[in-house]
Amino acid sequence: MKNTIATLVRWSGFGALQRFLKARHAVTIVVYHDPTPEVLREHLRWYAKHYSFTTLDAVAGAMETGRWDRLPAYPLVITLDDGHRNNTALAALFREFDLRPTIYLCSGIVGTARPYWWKTAAADSIGVERLKRVPDPERRRLLAEAGDDPDRDGADRQAMTWDEIARMTDVADYGAHTRTHPILLRCDDRDCADEITLCRTELEDRLGQPCRHFAFPNGDFSDREVEEIRRAGYRTARSIDPGWNDAATDPLRLKAFPVSDDVTVDWLSVQLTGIPAWLRKRRTAAADVSTGGATPEWAGPMVKPKSAGI
Ligand SMILES: [Zn+2]
Prior knowledge:
Blueprint: H1 2-12, H2 14-23, E1 28-32, H3 37-50, E2 52-53, H4 56-65, E3 75-82, H5 91-96, E4 102-105, H6 121-126, H7 128-133, H8 136-145, H9 162-167, E5 173-176, H10 189-207, E6 213-215, H11 223-232, E7 236-238, E8 257-258, H12 265-271, H13 275-291
Parallel strand pairs: 1-3, 1-8, 2-3, 3-4, 4-5, 6-7
Helix pairs in contact: 1-12, 10-11
């Protein structure tokens, strides 16, 4: 099914037409989590043929000044969420392709052996989707009771160390992704504000440089989160709502295309049409209405990213 769709998109010229119509003068942002250097190299080769790499700072500058002419044609920003330890293996690629991604860090997880909670045996047994939907204190309690307390060190370190982060400052920018990666919509007002505000100050204290870009965990946000981000002084906030960014886009609601970490280049070109993410969003929304939250079978693996990232 995937191959058929990929072939259709390629041979119909739909992907190329859409790039010409949409991506020429609007910013494409792609979202990774924990790709291997081998897969990312193939992706970067493909991007380099069709886009021009730019930075989130440059995009924020264009949005703030209206000087979109300072961005290259077909501008594309690479972002990586969470701060997975294997991101350090990507530094050479960023140098080789002369690009500067933004890596969004969880300030309470990097530099520790605390787990990314959705990548634990406890989360597997309870169900990640269920955990995303319960009030945040209950999520923590359920995980702790099942043996993977998200606030305690696990057996294996999953995140980058502060040293590794510091060593990559010449090839990457760092943004904020909350302190502990809760689903912000499930937090009370105070925890929501702390997760957004303290993440910035903790990262700036550690890195000694400004941290003005934010990414919503799991892409979830409401007006409350956006207002908190504005108050905390961020320049941009990135969602995973599929689409391109232009002068009409709110910098605190940047759109982006989630890319599965292990996807083929053929399917990558399909993901950048926005169709899979759009279908997934529609189906998840439909599932919310029809099943009270559980993702039904027909939501299907075709549109669900394989990577463990959220
Ligand atoms: Zn994340």
